[in-house]
Amino acid sequence: MQFKLDIFVQNFPYLLGGLKLTLGLTLFAMVFGIALGLGLALLKISKNSLLKWIATIYIEVVRGTPLLLQILIVYFVFAKIISLDAFTAGVVALSLNSAAYVSEIFRAGIESIPKGQMEAALSVGMNYSQAMRYIILPQTIRRVLPPVTNEIVAMFKDTSLVMVMGLAELTYRAKQISASTANVMTPYIAAGLVYLVFTIPLTRYAQRLERRFSKGA
Amino acid sequence: MKKVITLIILTALVVTIFTGCTSAKNVSGTVKGDDGKVVAGASVQIGKFSATTDADGHFVFNNVKPGKYILKISADGAEPFSDNVEVTKDGLSKNVTLKFNTLAKIKRSGVLRVGSDTTYAPFESIDTKAGKAVGFDVDIANLIAKKLGVKADIMTTDWGGIIPALETNKFDVIISAMTITKEREKEIDFSIPYYDSGQIIAVKTSNNSIKGPEDLVGKTVGTQMGTTGDFAVQKIKGAIDKTYPDIQLAFADLELGRLDAIVNDFPVTAFYSKGHKDIKLVGKLLTVEHYGIAFRKNDTELKDAVNKILEEIKTDGEYDQLYVKWFGKKPGS
Questions:
Q1: How far apart are CA B32 and CA B99, in angstroms?
Q2: Which of A126, A193, B15, B330 sits in a 20 to 30 Å window from B59, CA-based?
Q3: Helix ranges (DSSP H) in chain A
Q4: What is the rounded distance in angstroms from the CA atom of residue B118 to the CA atom of residue B125?
Q5: How far is B153 from chain A (nearest CA, A)?
Q6: How large is the ipTM?
Q7: Contact B276 A182 (CB under 8 A)
Q8: Cα–Cα distance between B88 and A110 in angstroms, integer?
Q9: Taking the model in full, what pTM does it have?
């Protein structure tokens, strides 16, 4: 039960190998999560009350249940209909989860643009989708960049939960190393350091953006 | 001039024969497996006619008269297919999907997918230098795959979800130091036993008060969740069963003094205590257990094939070789 440098050095390459999965999951979940999240946000602010309801229920259900449970449901319960492999199940669960959070960020971003802008765009002859595309969303994206970056950081860390499916990402590899070396401390500390190498620069970047926008806006 | 006429006549003849043939091929189709791959060499029967599918899974019949027929298709390892069909004057085109059993699917794909919780040395753990699973179970898996004429793919799986993952077809078998129990047999099938094991108590070397299961009353005992060690401690009245997702965490807690003892599979605990002089094994085995390879219910063909292989390697010495390699002695000695 102590930190051993030789165990660290010997097993670090194997640990780092898990980064491919961690980054892959983050990347896919980020792309799908943001796309789906933007769609949900547009549904939620739409005038059609049915669409609004669908989006609201989805967001409440996803945000009101633990991600770990969602992963288990996608992997095991969905399997009655379609048996996904662990990586695909991981991407699906993480995307569906982050979409709910991202959509709320987008919704807040869109609503933060003064209503007058939409009215002005409509009055110069644009239709709703043109006004959204050319006037509202470009400004929204600037505003939501810092919170979305924070969401990406959160997702990057949440990928560790896919280890319940036995996916050998960073945390699970640390667990495997702890089993094969019979040392608990070294691999978990090492994995923590690897996460920090990515999360610290990303959160710093989000903070800088936030400062710049608050000055510039 | 004569040559030209001959050529024209010949061409006309070829065209006639060709078109004649195509119009005669009036019943055709493709046979696929439920794994999505085509089935070559399946026997197809329609009425009195029979044919065999080619390398692309196609079958063709010529000159089948319009009418009602029974179409029967069969292939090795697949559920026989039978259906009433009607051949019209335009013929019939029919694509059929055959349901293969798991053994046939393994042979068709060339891969035996093995689920294993690779945090359990010396049975299964990750060799971090080679980046792959090693251990007694891994060698057994590879040997069985070899005898089936396929390759084993060791798929790392968390213990907590290992049985649901088998049931939802994430892999074909579990080879993961799994004890055959009545409870588990309700969910899954087991092979004949391939390893004899049992539960042992481990305590800190400095602890002289715990000598057997009767001393565990009122004590906090660490186990891995859902293992036979977990079940054994639950049966000891007054013992507090503290479960962990993997056994390494329990060992860490024992060394930190947050546990009084650990109950776990003997070979794994013995392996751990070798590298940790502050932990010792005490008393006799609490249970007699047998490890088995787990299958989905109804995968009888696969189970029979694996049982045959297990019997074979136990008699021809290959099993003993692996046993000595991982446990340093012959079985039963």
A1: 9
A2: B15
A3: 5-17, 19-44, 49-63, 67-72, 86-111, 115-123, 128-131, 137-158, 170-181, 185-216
A4: 4
A5: 14
A6: 0.76
A7: yes
A8: 62
A9: 0.83
If you measure CA to CA, which chain B residue comes closest to A14? B128
Q: Produce one character per residue of A115-147: b if its CB has 16 or more CB atoms within 10 Å, e if not.
A: eeebeebeeeebeeeebbeebbbebbeebbbbb
> What tokens appear for A141 in the block?
């994206």
- The encoded tokens of residue A9 equal 């050095």
Q: What is the DSSP string of B83-99?
A: EEEEEBTTBEE--EEEP
Angle at B9 between CA B4 and CA B13, to 5 degrees: 145
Question: B79: which DSSP letter?
Answer: -
Write the DSSP assignment of B227-283 as a string of letters.
SHHHHHHHHSTT-EEEEESSHHHHHHHHHTTS-SEEEEEHHHHHHHHHH-TTEEEES
Q: Is B169 on the interface with A (CB under 8 A)?
A: yes
Q: Which residue of A has its CA nearest to B168?
A: A79
Q: Minimal CA–CA distance to B103: which of B332, B300, B325? A: B300
Place of tokens 């990057």: A156
- Do B225 and B205 form a contact (C-beta atoms < 8 A)? no
- What are the phi and psi torsion angles at A26 (to 5°)? -60, -45
Token pair recorded at residue B330: 């012959």
Rounded Cα–Cα distance for residues B308 and A2 (Å): 47
Q: What are phi and psi of B90, to 5 degrees?
A: -85, 0
Between CA B133 and CA B115 the distance in angstroms is 11
Report yes or no: B36 at the A interface, CB cutoff 8 Å.
no
pLDDT tens series, chain B, 333 aa = 667 777 677 676 666 555 544 456 789 999 999 999 999 999 999 988 999 999 999 999 988 999 999 999 999 999 999 999 999 988 899 999 999 999 999 999 999 999 999 999 999 999 998 989 999 999 999 999 999 999 999 999 999 889 999 999 999 999 999 999 999 999 999 999 999 999 999 999 999 999 999 999 999 999 999 999 999 999 999 999 999 988 988 998 998 899 999 999 999 999 899 888 999 999 999 999 999 999 999 999 999 999 999 999 999 999 999 999 999 888 876
Question: What stretch of H or E contains B197?
Answer: strand B195-197
Compute the distance between CA of residue B308 and CA of residue B288 in angstroms, rounded to an integer. 24
